[in-house]
Amino acid sequence: MGEVTVVIPSDLSRILRVDEKQLPKLVRIYLAVELYREGVVSLGKAAEIAGVTKAEMMEILASKGVPLNYTEEDLQEDIETLERLL
């Protein structure tokens, strides 16, 4: 996946009460949650964007009250993962 640089206002870490070093990951998580909530990306893609596992993404979504929409694409990704592991 390619990268895009985004400039984040320095006072955002103070507003969110997090260390500046945590901001990039936090922004990726917020972006992934919103894209998933809007149905733009699958669970697997949201996890990839956030830089977490699918299980972690499911926990993040649950903590934010976002219902899981297990799509055919999610199923196919899980099948491919299982086939690689077996």
From TrEMBL:
InterPro entries the record matches: UPF0175 (IPR005368), UPF0175_domain (IPR052264)
Q: Name one Pfam family in it.
A: UPF0175
- Family in the record: Belongs to the UPF0175 family.
Q: Which PANTHER family match?
A: UPF0175 PROTEIN SSL1255
Question: In its UniProt entry, what is this protein called?
Answer: Uncharacterized protein
